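Ticket closed. Logging final result for Mitochondrial import inner membrane translocase subunit TIM22.
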Amino acid sequence: MIGTYSPSGPSKALSEMTQEEQAEEGAKKFVEFMQSCPGKTAMAGGSGFFLGGFFGLFMASMAYDVPVGNNAAAHISELPFKQQMKLQFSDMAKRSYSSAKNFGYIGMVYSGVECCVESLRAKHDIYNGVSAGCITGAGLSIKAGPQAALVGCAGFAAFSTAIDLYLRSESAPPPKNDYDE
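Final structure:
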């Protein structure tokens, strides 16, 4: 039986592999996918969605005395407790989901653009993040006009640069491990 080509040599058919070899092959394919542009984009979107949901839930829990609906005269504190809780949990869920969608979308766009820029430039340096930040910021704010796109570009690029410089700095303290005392 003819196997498929891989850089490490011809591979066996799935039925000819042991369970350990099948697991190893599956793990290799999973790692390859996660290191690809679609994999990085999906991971950034998923983690952004999770982080945004948590952030939205936290921020919604801080806004506890808001008017109910569009009627500014009725405050939530004037309602019965059970109705207050129902409205608050409903509002928290809406805000959390909205924030999760936004963070996930921004994470996907930024990560996808950065991966594409890195692939086109064939270099891994800070300029990929700066370019991706600029393109993402401009793309997210383009509907508001060219001035907003320019400000969005500058803001996202500056934020991306600051994060990249911090993460790449040699003066940043190393993470603690179990052996440090």
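Residues 123-168 form one domain. No further action required.
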